# Entry
Amino acid sequence: MPNRNIGILKSTPALIACLLALLGCMYLASKSLFLSHQAVDFPYIWLAGQLWSSGIDPYSAAFESAGRELVVDGHSPQTWFYPPNWWPIAVLTAQLPLSNSVTVWRTLSAALLLTSTLALVLARHRFDGEMSVERAAIAVAYGCLMSATPMALSMGQTSLIGFTGVALFIVAHLTEKRLIMGVALALAMLKPQIGLPLVAFVLPATKWWGSIAGAGFASLLFAVPALSAVEIPRFVSAYLSQLSVHEGLEPNHPLEMTGMRNLLFDAFDITVPSLGLLTTSAAIAGLIGWRARLQSLEKTTLLALLLATVALFAPLHTYDLMIVLPFILLTSSFSLFAQLVIASGMMVIFRANNLAFVTGIYHPDAAINIDSCLASLGLVIVAVGALAEFFKRTSSTRP
# Structure
């Protein structure tokens, strides 16, 4: 007599994964649409939009005085650090009162997470068919339930714009769509610490030069209204001065950041400037892109190594680490060893704040992000897995 439970048993993992994804979506809604408290970081964007809309330069001293006047609840913005290509987004956010605008921002950020993940799933499936319902649902659940996501939404951070840029970059690479690549790079350049390594990676391939040029033109176009009313030399001087201030703020101390900046300070008391790490990240990404040009390698292997490079070397915070989510979808054809190593690192990153609290593994001088050390160790583990797969693939392609 046939066992009628076989079909149910076979679908149980998919059912569990889909339930986790549904739970994650509900959790995401509670942390975005239904979150009422004021954000810490979003008022900076909103305030810059207010000043730009009024024809005032937010890179001037007017930003701090306007912050005291217009942002009456919570933290008052003091200095505007974002590049001028944020002009259209900042001005759009300023069209609503701050309390309403932050709700829209959080809701749109949550929507970007879900739609970008869906785009990744579809692109990965069309690339080689290596995509199961379970893996797709786990990717959604991971993105919604990892600690980085509610942290970014609560603060009103820009992390999910960076994630969307990374996701579309991967989609463009897998589908060979130049227009999508241009959009991806333009979005990623809103967070240069993510965008510059991506540009360096595709630069050796002439087929992407049009996309790079289009993204550069779009970024310049976005910045024109912000630059049209200022003297460029004075702006450059003021902006560089503000970036040096940004480096010295407590949230940007190495102990509060992730990756090599955190680990080098934690282990050797070495403070590496963010610009140095950004340059290193871009250089390694460029070498990976050049290596890909010289030898045909499987795209998912290259993209995983690139993503590991950006996550480990770029100056980021724990609330930026949803950019590791694509590993779930890229690694389906990897060796079992590489998949297990990468999955181990991602589980450390998943709820690094809770893990740090439970285990007590964190630097005693970390005042804001106690999970930075564990998250950084998780990134190292992920990078080891990505490297292992890369060397396996390169050795197998040698004559």
Summary: The longest helix spans residues 98-128.
